[in-house]
Recover the amino acids of this structure.
């Protein structure tokens, strides 16, 4: 059979079958046939205990030069995402919350110059970007 990459990615991440069906709008058979084709173990009823979000986050990253962090987990439409309890927040958002201990306002995005970076300390939300811009304007004038 043809294996759908998005189903395979979520299965390998341990996303529960119900969540895969709901997220990708696929049927029970599509998920279970993919699991069998990939020779992954059958799901445990009731699921396994949920990892702390920090553990789940760092398990899907690898450090790169200059303190940046690369996402090795699932991507959807080019955005790194952490599948968890039926939700798929972006890894930028999760990283932002881990570092700043609050929800981002607007989108969280890396402010370090590397567009794929998920390092928690490198994430910025809209007010932070606006404040930085205001500071640059006050230093360099309105030419920016
Ligand atoms: Zn970075």
């Amino acid at each position: 059979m043809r294996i759908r990459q998005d189903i395979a990615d979520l299965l390998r991440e341990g996303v529960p079958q119900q969540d895969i069906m709901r997220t990708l709008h696929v049927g029970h058979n599509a998920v279970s046939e993919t699991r069998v084709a990939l020779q992954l173990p059958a799901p445990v009823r009731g699921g396994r205990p949920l990892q702390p979000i920090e553990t789940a986050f760092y398990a899907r990253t690898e450090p790169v030069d200059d303190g940046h962090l690369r996402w090795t987990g699932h991507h959807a439409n080019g955005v790194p995402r952490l599948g968890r309890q039926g939700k798929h927040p972006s890894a930028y958002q999760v990283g932002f919350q881990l570092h700043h201990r609050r929800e981002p306002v607007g989108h969280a995005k890396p402010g370090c110059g590397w567009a794929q970076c998920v390092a928690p300390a490198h994430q910025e939300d809209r007010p932070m970007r606006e404040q930085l811009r205001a500071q640059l304007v006050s230093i360099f004038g309105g030419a920016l």
User: Anything to note?
Assistant: The pocket of zinc ion is lined by residues 68, 110, 112, 114, 117, 119, 122 (CB under 6 Å). The chain has two domains: 1-48, 53-140. The chain has a mean pLDDT of 90.
